[in-house]
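Order emerges. As here.
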Amino acid sequence: MTGRPAVPRRGRDRRARTIPAPPGRPRFGADAPEVAVIGGGIAGLAAATGLAERGARVTLYERERGLGGRLAGWSTDLADGSPVTMSRGFHAFFRQYYNLRGLLRRADPSLGMLTALPDYPLRHSSGLYDSFARVPRTPPWSALGFVALSPAFGWRDLLRMNPAAALPLLDVRVPQVYARLDTVSAADFLARIRFPDAAQHLAFEVFSRSFFADPRELSAAELVLMFHIYFLGSSEGLLFDVPDEPYPRALWEPLGRYLEGHGADVRTGTEVSAAGSSGPDGPTVTADGRTRRFDALVLALDSGGLRRLAAASPGLCDAPWRERAERLRTAPPFLVSRLWLDRPVAADRPGFLGTSGFGPLDNISVLERWEGEAARWAARTGGSVVELHAYAYASDDLPAAQDRLVRQMHRVYPETAHASIVDQRHEWRADCPLFPVGGFHDRPTVRTPHPTVTVAGDAVRTDLPVALMERAATTGFLAANALLERWGVRGQTLWTVPERGRSAVLRALAALGDT
């Protein structure tokens, strides 16, 4: 299969930034190189796509049986005999994710696999309830509208705030934001601003929890960058889309077929044990006991995977690079519990609810509100499929942690206390990257000391305003672009949210904080 590489589309934000593709010829001819991509998550799929579309001979190695990385899914059978798909839980596909959505358009140009959720509600145990459904999307009206509509902000609370401490929020630029705030924790930054406690829980901790991290450990620069991406820097808003079927069916199986149609060799269930780049004839990859040589290599692994590979590969890049890779840290463990209940939750329960003040419970999803597989099971049985998340939740007693989540669900949705659990699945993981205070300069970049080895993933350092899944997709394309540029082949055009504050007046105010 051949064809013109797709270009990501910006959304409604006319100020979205274009990152031009490196120039060059459209695609390889008979000189097509062989490239290995290690990792079949979002970053690896983006890198493999950018390369295969231009005629490179790509071999994609993925340790697990399916693609998707931390968004993979797998089959399991419930106690009632129903075959279902389990995953590591809910993810929101925001409209600011231009490059991720561009990747998904390869499988469906219309993005018909995504469906919009009507709201992003947040509930505090005190009874306060916030919603983003009626908040304007264009800054600064988005922030003003949120304050005006939120019950967490009162006039006395506003008067007690420290506006000078909030000035960095008004003009966020990368990498300058790291120079200003990477040595400060997210918790300390919020304390300086003196936000009302409820507002802090309902608004800002939502962002910090997106990193599966305790705000006391998270770099304030990452928190402020998130605020720019979703709130003050972009007019795409805080509402989002979700896949209408489980991840493998909706996303990764179609994208895998797309890659194979472009000649890629997709090897799932294949773990790479070592890699090298010191030889004169190109990088090497060792998998299944066999070492193979390539013309180039993309390392698209999570933090733990990159750390392990660097430790096992003395010939990969150079010693200082490997030492930095081995210092990468992972965020604290998180728990995902999915429950198949014998009766429905109340009809007015939202598809997704962020929570605060309910012990370890960070959010509740009602899957049949949007996912076809869950909706079909609920319609057939009269029940509900509910998913509970607890982030940054270290515990040595997993059964007790699971029970605690269920008890908190009963507090939030009391009708579930009367339901029986038909079956349940629990995923206890600790493999998300941690962005610790002061850690920015130690993180890997897309380019490495070896010109034929690049790195991609959500832990990778980049000078673009991207985060989470969008950072994974963006750095995947950037890793491919770096190799393509070396070979004189035109790369992938990318988009990001604006690279600075939107208002000249607000940028001038932010500059006061530097004087």
